[in-house]
Automatic annotation (TrEMBL):
This is Carboxy-S-adenosyl-L-methionine synthase. Homodimer. The keyword Kinase does not apply. S-adenosyl-L-methionine binds at Y40, G65, C66, S67, D90, N91, D118, I119, N133, R200. Gene3D superfamilies: Vaccinia Virus protein VP39 (3.40.50.150). It comes from Shewanella nanhaiensis.
Length: 243
């Protein structure tokens, strides 16, 4: 997947506007997410492995907040000949256009319905796998229970939800430590102090992480009986919940 280098926050800006998944971000997103989220590549690869294990014949797979299609591509590579459909949804037109190009670069017998729309509005049915890879943190906190409820109802018995998120921590010492380690990860990937602080300001009102306990409580309240973390690096994690 080609992408230009992310230099969006490299120049000092007087008024930092709220982060948006617009044309500028879509054009550098592959580079941005790999340099910002520790373990992103590992998570994308594992989504393919989970798909191989959990996706059942003639079922639907949902990639909610699909961006450029990295998760969809990984899943599609691993579920050949099962007569499934992947429904990939994003409400950013710029992401959807690039996603379409990325999907078109590979041959596959699994169709992808690419939907430009809000994940709160789409129907979920006959699903054996649902992926929310760093998307729920951008949804208004009050809308999260209803989304998980809809996913639970749309999953077949034995179906899997994979939920990857940045986490918050109740313990301020742990929050500080894991935040620092994340900032060091960004520095090691070439982001300057200016880029780091300007991006942090732009995300402040837009990205609202929950704690691990909040996620666990929400998933269990909405019906999931099996829940665990399968991956964590610093303050980024990926969880699984099975119906
Ligand atoms: C951090 S990115 C997801 C990365 C992607 N899942 C991946 O694995 O590469 C979050 C995406 O969710 C989308 N998004 C945020 N809120 C949304 C909503 N309510 N409905 C649909 N898409 C949404 C954004 O446009 C953005 O592309
Ligand atoms: O916390 C950060 O600095 C991030 O950049 C995180 C994060 C994410 O978790 O989705 C935020 C926005 C971009 O989508 C890429 C990464």
């Amino acid at each position: 997947m080609n992408s230009s280098q992310d230099t969006i926050y490299a120049q000092a800006c007087e008024n930092i506007s709220d982060f948006q998944f617009d044309e500028k971000v879509a054009g550098v997103f592959n580079d941005m997410i790999r340099r910002s989220v520790p373990g992103y590549g590992q998570i994308i690869q594992t989504l393919g492995e989970l798909a191989h294990k959990y996706v059942t014949p003639k079922s639907h797979v949902y990639d909610l907040g699909c961006s450029l299609g990295a998760a969809t591509l990984s899943i599609r590579r691993n579920i050949g000949s099962r007569n499934c459909t992947i429904i990939a949804v994003d409400n950013s037109q710029s992401m959807i256009e690039r996603c379409q190009e990325n999907l078109g670069a590979y041959v596959s017998d699994t169709p992808v319905d690419l939907v430009c729309g809000d994940i709160r509005d789409i129907k979920i049915e006959n699903a054996s796998m649902v992926v929310l890879n760093f998307t729920m943190q951008f949804l208004a906190p009050n809308d999260r229970d209803a989304l998980v409820n809809k996913i639970y109802k749309g999953l077949k018995p034995g179906g899997i939800l994979v939920l990857s998120e940045k986490l918050n921590f109740e313990d301020s010492s742990i929050q500080g430590l894991l935040d620092d380690l994340h900032l060091d990860f960004k520095r090691a990937n070439g982001y300057s102090e200016l880029e780091i602080s300007q991006k942090r300001s732009s995300l402040e009102h837009v990205m609202k992480p929950d704690t691990l306990l909040q996620h666990e409580m929400r998933l269990k309240t909405q019906g999931f009986t099996h829940f665990n973390l399968w991956f964590q690096c610093f303050n980024f994690a990926s969880m699984v919940a099975i119906k």
